[in-house]
Design brief:
Strand order of the largest sheet: 15-16-17-14-13-19-20
Bound molecules: nicotinamide-adenine-dinucleotide
Radius of gyration: 25 Å
Number of strands: 23
Strand content: 15-25%
Structural class: alpha/beta
Length: 496
């Protein structure tokens, strides 16, 4: 049994709190690791080391920081498969999906390699006689990332790439369910030349999080996870004066209009609903079938499900792996019972898949038709391989349904009608919109974020908005006077 500990000051540090949590291989159901849970005292020690490192790192020239980010890119790229294997072993997603996660995460490092241009300020000459103004952006100091289990490498990369390139020290508190990837990343960052203390990992649960949220030396908090915790993080950290971006859960709808290419829409719905066993915040969990398309799309999706290869993610043949824990798998499966009890039709019940009886935490791909907004399976974020179909008569009804959702992460429409697609883009209340694209995760040089209860705070994550989030602005007004013209003038400074 291996133990997973903290990464502080550029080295592995064993936990001393005596508190640990179990980590499983979801494909076998076996416990493989214990992860240390940091106490408040251990968090204090880690933040003190990070605060010292931040003082040095903000002095490093932009070309040095750029060079380090290029090396970070190189080592992450070279060791991508190792990170992917660690993700599969603890999260359960299939290897190709884990490799895709790493690749999309590395996009954020590529973006951060352009840090000199991203941080360049503005200059205005002669704003008054002999007076110039320029703006600069400076790092905040120590910033924190608290991340979810479903992207144990990519979501930390969403945060630390820009945070470190901007000149901050970054403290990561990964999910306790799959913490191994964070430790591999920590070692690789050290190998790439990230100075000791600039990247820290504290493992833990609520105690570590609360200690970070209230720590006076932490300036900003990036959080990604479920909506109730996102709200708690936002409120607690903001109360102690920190800058916060807290990304929450989702319930992403995909509207299928009668003119859509049904084969393409069904392929997209299956890929986006069941990829990573539905454990993606951008997964499609509701298909909204408009008009007479409903029977056709339900049967096209249903036809594809028996062909999905479900198994251990480490097996190259598998397309869908298990869920992260047994408790989560059982909770996801319970929605199939409540759906039936509440009047929906379970078209495909994943509990009939042979893998459901394995020791691993498997559930087959499940499809529920005739879902109505009041039902549990519609109201809750299930976060598993369960796709609901809601039938409506018109496009207006479909958009109304989406816009009445408390979440606003992703939203997609499948149609061949450009006019309707454009209207959808204008009307829909969601932060990321796909037109014939089911999972519209923005590329690394745009920013990612939802609306409503999918994001608390003002700033989206990664990309251009991350540069503002991880720095603060300073505007300098300067004069280099000719002593010969100097006078006393008590009037308010004028520019003309
Ligand atoms: P979670 O909210 O349970 O945990 C996220 C982090 O918060 C973890 O590090 C965890 O240790 C910590 N945490 C959990 N309970 C806490 C508490 N009571 N106090 C303080 N910290 C606590 O989320 P999860 O189950 O790991 O991840 C799945 C959720 O994340 C889903 O809701 C999914 O939609 C969401 N998610 C959102 C995005 C996005 O970009 N909006 C991306 C990925 C995942």
């Amino acid at each position: 049994m291996e133990r997973i500990s903290h990464w502080i000051g550029g080295k592995l540090v064993d936990g001393e709190s005596g508190r640990t949590g179990p980590v499983f291989n979801p494909a076998t159901g076996q416990k493989t690791h214990d992860v240390d849970f940091a106490s408040t005292v251990e968090v204090d020690r880690a933040v003190a080391v990070a605060a010292d490192a931040a003082q040095e790192w903000r002095r490093a020239s932009l070309s040095r920081r750029t060079e380090v980010m290029f090396r970070v890119h190189q080592v992450l790229y070279q060791h991508g498969n190792e990170i992917a294997r660690a993700i599969t072993a603890q999260h359960g997603k299939v290897l190709s999906d884990a490799a895709g996660e790493v690749a999309r995460g590395i996009e954020n490092v590529e973006f951060a390699c352009g840090i000199p241009g991203l941080l360049a300020g503005r200059f205005a000459e002669q704003v008054s006689s002999g007076v110039d103004v320029h703006s600069i952006r400076q790092p905040l100091g120590v910033v924190v990332g608290i991340t979810p289990f479903n992207f144990p490498a990519m979501v930390p990369m969403w945060m630390f790439a820009s945070a470190i390139a901007c000149g901050n020290a970054f403290v990561l508190k990964p999910s306790e369910k799959d913490p191994l990837a964070s430790m591999i990343i920590a070692e690789l960052l050290a190998e790439a030349g990230v100075p000791d203390g600039v990247f820290t990992v504290v493992q833990g649960d609520r105690e570590a999080v609360d200690a970070l949220l209230e720590h006076p030396q932490i300036q900003a908090v990036s959080f990604v996870g479920s909506t109730p915790i996102a709200r708690h993080i936002y409120e607690t950290a903001a109360r102690s004066g920190k800058r916060v971006q807290a990304l929450g859960g989702a319930k992403n709808h995909m509207i299928v209009l009668p003119d859509a290419d049904i084969g393409m829409a069904a392929d997209a719905a299956v890929s986006a609903a069941y990829g990573s066993a539905g454990e993606r915040c951008m997964a499609i969990s509701v298909v909204v079938a408009v008009g007479n398309v409903a029977d056709t799309i339900v049967s096209a999706i249903g036809d594809r499900l028996p062909r999905l290869r479900i198994g251990d993610g480490a097996n190259e043949d598998s397309e869908m792996g298990p869920l992260v824990t047994r408790e989560h798998r059982d909770k996801v499966a319970s929605y199939l019972d409540s759906a039936t009890a509440q009047g929906a039709t379970v078209v495909v019940d994943g509990r009939h898949h042979p893998k459901y009886r394995d020791d691993g935490f498997f559930l087959g791909a499940s499809l529920i038709d005739q879902v109505e907004p009041g039902m549990d399976c519609y109201r809750d974020e299930i976060f598993g391989p369960v796709l609901s179909v809601v039938r409506v008569e018109t496009y207006e009804e479909a958009v109304g349904l989406l816009n009445s959702s408390p979440w606003g992460n992703g939203a997609a429409i499948f149609t061949r009608d450009g006019g309707i697609a454009r209207r959808f883009q204008f009307e829909v209340e969601a932060g990321m919109v796909g037109i014939n694209v089911p999972i519209p995760v923005p590329v690394g040089y745009f920013s990612f974020g939802g609306w409503k209860q999918s994001l608390f705070g003002d700033t989206h994550i990664y990309g251009p908005e991350s540069i503002n989030f991880y720095t603060r602005a300073k505007v300098v007004t300067s004069r280099w006077p000719d002593p010969a013209t100097s006078t006393v003038d008590l009037g308010f400074p004028r520019t003309r």
